[in-house]
Amino acid sequence: MHPIPPLSDPDLWWQNYQTEYAGRSWANYRWLLSEFVSMAPCPPLLDVGCGQGFLLECARQFGIPSVGLEGSERALEKCRELHPLVDARLWHGGETLPLDSASVGGAVLNEFVDHIFPEQNDLLFRELQRVLLPGGVIIVKSPSRHNRFDIDQGHVTFFSPSEFRAFVESHGFDVISQPFVAQPLLGPSAFASRLVRLAAKVVGKEKIAARIDLVARKNA
């Protein structure tokens, strides 16, 4: 068991980490919106843990309907200040999703599953099955529990890549992709990265992976 970190409360987390977002704009999230457009069968987009609403505003700029859910009132206040036209709602892990069944084409969980407890993730993924349209997708970005370079003080749930894949599949999703991203164990250079990838072929990828990122589709 891992101890509960001091920044597990969403408002405390945003109080300490909000400066990380000071230089960002909706344009920084075009890559994530592009992934949604290429993988989801249709809008709308559901952004779980939408923070200050950058992805929502990015979707709005391109005419894609979206809705965001966020547990921090501090973050939502900033979201509404920066992006007054987006649909961002207060929601906490452990609550059912305030959406109709079969009403969204895809859900993005960007740096979120690590910030809610295991039983809350269990409910969330059951709820995602409910609210997704047939063929709907989930796009998850999150660090691995083996990532030595992760210093976020708000993490409360820890998956390895294989553990997370099994968890997602147990909730009725078919994993489409789960790319291997190596930790920069020997430094940031391209040569060092190649050495780490070679080592992963010998000792296995599980404990060398930096991320558990994946895309999965609702099982028909």
Protein model, in words:
By secondary structure, this protein is an alpha/beta fold. It has seven helices and seven strands. It has helices spanning 10-17, 30-39, 54-61, 73-82, 118-131, 161-170, 190-203, and strands spanning 45-48, 66-70, 88-90, 104-110, 132-141, 173-177, 214-218. A seven-stranded mixed sheet has the order 3-2-1-4-5-7-6, with helices on both faces. The radius of gyration is 17 Å and the shape is globular. The mean pLDDT is 92.
Contiguous low-pLDDT stretches (5 residues minimum) are none
**Secondary-structure element string:** HHEHEHEEHEHEHE
The portion of residues forming beta strands comes to 15-25%
Question: What order do the strands of the largest sheet run in, or round the barrel if closed?
Answer: 3-2-1-4-5-7-6
How are the elements arranged and paired?
Layout lengths: L9 H8 L12 H10 L5 E4 L5 H8 L4 E5 L2 H10 L5 E3 L13 E7 L7 H14 E10 L19 H10 L2 E5 L12 H14 L10 E5 L2
Parallel strand pairs: 1-2, 1-4, 2-3, 4-5
Antiparallel strand pairs: 5-7, 6-7
Give a nutshell description of this structure.
Helix content is 34%, strand content 18%.
What labels would you give this structure?
7 strands, 7-stranded mixed β-sheet, alpha/beta, 7 helices, 220 residues
